Amino acid sequence: MVIKWKELIISILIPLAVGGLSALITGGQMSDFMLLNQPPLSPPAWLFPVVWTVLYILMGIASYLVWQAKDKNTDLALKIYGLQLFFNFFWSYIFFSLENYLFAFIWLLILWVLIIVTTVLFYRISKPAGYLMIPYLLWVTFAAYLNLAIYILN
To answer: How many Å apart are CA 118 and CA 20, to the nearest integer?
Structure first.
């Protein structure tokens, strides 16, 4: 498979832009977040942008592999992928800006289901693409634990 660099870069920039814009909108609320009662296993604040950057790059590569596969299910897979990016973007706003932790948790559960659907669709089109989505699914599972615990503790 020949790498189409322009398409790969676009594929990576899309989730990075979604995450970057979301972080920009929620701005300095991360410092407020760290003042909340934290559950056990809460990572340090500096880890979040590092992990999310890596996850967005992996998601971008996965979407590129699906896009290039030209499978009959590519359009559906990329639409669901776009929908989960939409949910990903607004979770940060609901959680950090609105501080509505219960609604954010429910929103995150919907995101989690969308990630599973995306992962399965990606896997059926390109096994490596499906595998690249697994760290994202695991991190959002962990984020759900943190989100629910923060709702309970605060």
So the answer is: 21
Tokens representing residue 26 in the block: 């929620």
What is residue 50's predicted lDDT score, i.e. its pLDDT?
A: 96
Burial of 42 (0-12, 13-18, 19+ CB in 10 A): middle
Q: Which amino acid is at 90?
A: F
Residue 64: how many CB atoms within 10 A of its CB? 22
**Nearest-10 Cα torsion for 118, 124, 127, 128:** -30
Residue 7 has pLDDT above 90, yes or no: yes
Length of the chain: 154
Q: For residue range 41-62, what is the model confidence (pLDDT) as tens digits?
A: 999 988 999 999 999 999 999 9
